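ZP: hey, is the coenzyme A complex queued? I don't see it on the tracker
AM: it wasn't, my bad. submitting now with these inputs:
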Amino acid sequence: MAHQLLTPQQEIRTDRLVLTPLTPADIDDAHAVFSDARTWEHLPAGRHTDRATTVDLVQRKIGGRARHGLASWTVRTADGAYVGIGGVDMTAAGVWNLGYRLDPAAWGKGFASEVAAAAVDQAHRTAPSAPVTGRVLTNNPASAAVLRKAGLSLVWQGTTSAVTPDGVLRQVWTDHELTDDQFAWLVRNA
Ligand SMILES: CC(C)(COP(=O)(O)OP(=O)(O)OC[C@H]1O[C@@H](n2cnc3c(N)ncnc32)[C@H](O)[C@@H]1OP(=O)(O)O)[C@@H](O)C(=O)NCCC(=O)NCCS
């Protein structure tokens, strides 16, 4: 019973959006967005070229929710239109990762910011001492703007051994102080 009380509610409503835990029924909608090159303009190598990659992603989100009580959501408008995936996922470093990938038709309406605000709120309720962090490339200022508006601050910028488009740097953002181990993990995986 205590566990149930600590588990965030199944469906969260914001001003304009309905946020629900991912289920296998969301795979086709998610794949349409994650295989759309426009949603990977800043990191083309990440595009999902087969459905199995999206199946893995959805399974990881379902597993993460089962283990940590919270994971990224399916995002829909109040009238049921699919918007994408967004929210927080717990990482191996004990920090939440805030992320979002939305249908291009839904960009520029403040939806990512609305999801991010709800995600930070739920993350703080679920594991209050765990920082909410974000990792972004410097060629993606819209994503950085969403992190900033959600209350995160830039704590690192640089390159890693991971391939990055020419002239682009990687950034780490957080809303709480990080331990040395958490910081090192985030930079390694930036
Ligand atoms: C990044 C993404 C989630 C933003 O979604 P969105 O719903 O359009 O975002 P919002 O409307 O909530 O906010 C975007 C903010 O970025 C700002 N912005 C947009 N383009 C910008 C640019 N080129 N430079 C600076 N700021 C920019 C907007 O003005 C807005 O800030 P404001 O509300 O203060 O005006 C969406 O474009 C997306 O899914 N992109 C593909 C996937 C992706 O890049 N995910 C992030 C990976 S780290």
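AM: back. The chain has one domain: 2-188.
ZP: great, adding it to the tracker
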